[in-house]
Amino acid sequence: MHALAGLPTADALISAKPVDYVIIALYFVFVLGIGVMARRAVSDSIDFFLSGRSLPAWVTGLAFISANLGAVEIMGMSANGAELGISTVHYFWVGAIPAMLFLGVVMMPFYYGSKVRSVPEFMFRRFGTGAHLVNSISFAVAQLLIAGVNLYLLGSIVHALLGWPLWVALLVAAAIVLSYITLGGLSAAIYNEVLQFFVIVAALLPLTLIGLHRVGGYQGLKDKVTEFATSAPASAGVPSAEQQLHSWPGQALSGFDSPFWSVVGIVFGLGFVLSFGYWTTNFVEVQRAMASNSMSAARKTPIIGSFAKMFVPFIVIIPGMVAAVLVKEIGELKAGGTPPGGASGEGVKYNDSLLLLMRDILPNGLLGVAIAGLLAAFMAGMAANISAFNTVFSYDLWQRYIRKDHSDDYYLRIGRLATVGATVIAIFTATIASSFSNVMDYLQSLFGFFNAPLFATFILGMFWKRMTATAGWVGLTAGTLSAVLVAFLSEDGFGSASLGVIPLSGQGAAFVAASAAFVVDIVLSVGVSLVTEPKPSSELRGLVYSETPREELVDPQERTMPWFRRTLPLAGISLGLVIILNFLF
After folding, report:
1. Distance between CA atoms of residues 341 and 356, nearest Å
2. Please, are residues 61 and 67 in contact by the beta-carbon 8 Å criterion?
3. pTM score > 0.85 for this model?
4. How far is residue 555's CA from residue 160's CA, in Å, rounded to a whole number?
């Protein structure tokens, strides 16, 4: 394989056999085949960008969670599991499920009912040009940066599998994603995401079960984590066994010494500001629901996704924790060492936890399934970023501000060109992600910059009709800048350029930055609204809760469905299950 490639190689991290390559090749045949078939259904821009609003709830629900279950989710959360332990579940049970349910129950009726093509377009209708332009640009930049993270980790897998230099692996990985998104647009992305969801589960479930078996079950894992935490040198800063094995108060995750402030940081910073900011306003996720075939299906999309989301920690975080006590290199890293190698070739990082665990415990055949699962996850995440970017770039930036009133075919071509351009740029933004040992630190900083202030503007504007257009763009801009300032003042928010004035680092600093963005946005938005002129109430129908008739926020067909297919009962069951999980762990 190396000889055929004709490329300079390093030692491959994973020793794959022909059977593994066959499994991976079959997976790629399916991926590209879906792109080709979806191409036949693309006749206009709505087909390309929103799948013609024709997909059932179970498809969009699985795609909704699969789009999020990308490289960041799998490698980042497993890295957190290895480094911090079980408190990482807060990203799911506190930092995702409540916001997903709120999106389905409260916000999707506004998105879907207004027939907007993107979240920034909704901002345009509510606040006008200023807030729309700020939101469109910030969202586009965020997607290019996050696509780079997914591409970097996808390239790392190719590097680990074949031993190719990382830059070659990045080019190959980018070409694969580009091919099926350019062919079939959002439909290709969504149907591949459904396939990828099942491939990811098939890949990670055996890894979890075999890993737990090797350490003597969950109790054996707890014993080994306790032993490691007790014996690790103080200079390594390893969290105590108590912090690694219990989700609350979550000091290992938040970075706060005080249990009280740790809970406040997790609940407000992560559970409210970052979580609601991400899930309720991030077009990457909302786009999947907007491709649904009815209001009822759109509302149920994130709720169906929430059931899968709450059980993902068991196949992502647990393997990370197993790797920390079973994989020699990860144990050495956690104890303060600097083991050589890793997927990047520049030293082992926590991001390598799953790869090294796969190397150590999976037999060939299962190894091929696991590699295909990781490739599936990374392509799902990157494809979601790219497909959301090309929609916002084409509709919200190009059509509105650069070339208006052209034919539908013209904007369809622009969308495909934007896809190519975004993929090329992601190759360069991938180099930024490569400098972080734990990509979740980087990602949470980005969410604090872009999603937290957007949520503040969004939620205030949706429930307070007095909020004005001027307040929309002023609050959004000031909130973003305040998050950047907090990150710059923290210990490592901007790497070597950070001033270290605020004694917080990593994800704890991201929680504070997001909270600052939210508070600054709200305070300024209220102040500016009180001294500027609001829109008349007649223009706020379908945009503000109090001005929208209730019958426009529900699907009348849902009354005829059995209870287990209705939005509110499903949301109630999901919320009840996640509360139980918080008590159990």
Report:
1. 11
2. no
3. no
4. 49
